[in-house]
Design a protein that fits this description.
It contains 6 helices and 10 strands. By secondary structure, the protein is an alpha+beta fold. Helix 4 runs antiparallel to helix 5 (162-169).
């Protein structure tokens, strides 16, 4: 099951070959590696009481014209001033998908400006962005519910509660890179996996969840 660009429509892929073809078209377009992007995701909290749940209506009002259509079907879903797109994850986490740039320096400058704009909007609504990779105070709870998220939840529930914790309580950082030329893809993919563990160790910030110590750094 995959989502269309409209985000709220579902297409069912009937076999593995169809799924492979779809992923190849949208995720592994090859060519010269020229652009870098980033997706920044945070939990969102009431500024006065971080344990208080933040519902979708409060998020919609705070984000205004930048609300995604999954939160407000009538929203124009306008980009932030420097081109970042705002989305809201199933647990109410807010994410900026920055517009890809030809240099890391340009990406950082544009993304910092978009983050500042997002913070200002949330601040005006009495909300703040979380500072850790997992919600330290609240238990997992759904805020945005779409066919895609329901399908994910059903799949994760077959393995236990960790899937819901990931969907509803975690935040993250995703660096987006071009796949590269066809002959480079395997080596670039392997390199990305190799740097993952040290980056995880360097930025691990999930030692507390739902008011309790997790026993883990990440």
């Amino acid at each position: 099951m995959v989502m269309s660009p409209e985000l709220d429509r579902v297409t069912v892929l009937g076999d593995e070959a169809a799924a492979r073809g779809h992923l190849a078209r949208i995720c592994f377009k090859t060519g010269p590696p020229t652009l870098t992007g980033v997706e920044l995701e945070w939990t969102v909290h009431d500024a006065a009481d971080p344990t208080r749940p933040v519902d979708r209506e409060r998020l919609r009002e705070a984000l205004g014209r930048h609300s995604p259509v999954t939160l407000d079907p009538t929203s124009p879903a306008d980009e932030l001033r420097r081109g970042g797109t705002v989305t809201v994850e199933p647990g109410g986490q807010v994410e900026i998908s920055a517009a890809a740039r030809p240099s890391v320096a340009a990406l950082v400058l544009a993304t910092e400006a978009d983050v500042a704009e997002l913070r200002a909007r949330l601040d005006a609504a009495g909300l703040v962005l979380g500072r850790t990779g997992m919600d330290p105070w609240r238990s997992p709870r759904p805020v945005v519910d779409t066919p895609r998220y329901r399908a994910m939840r059903r799949a994760f529930d077959r393995r236990g509660p960790a899937g819901r914790a990931m969907m509803y309580s975690t935040a993250g950082l995703q660096v987006c890179l071009d796949a590269g030329e066809p002959t480079q893809v395997a080596d670039r993919w392997a390199a990305a996996h190799a740097v993952g563990p040290p980056l995880l160790a360097a930025f691990a910030t999930a030692d507390r969840h739902a008011g309790r110590r997790t026993g883990w750094a990440s």
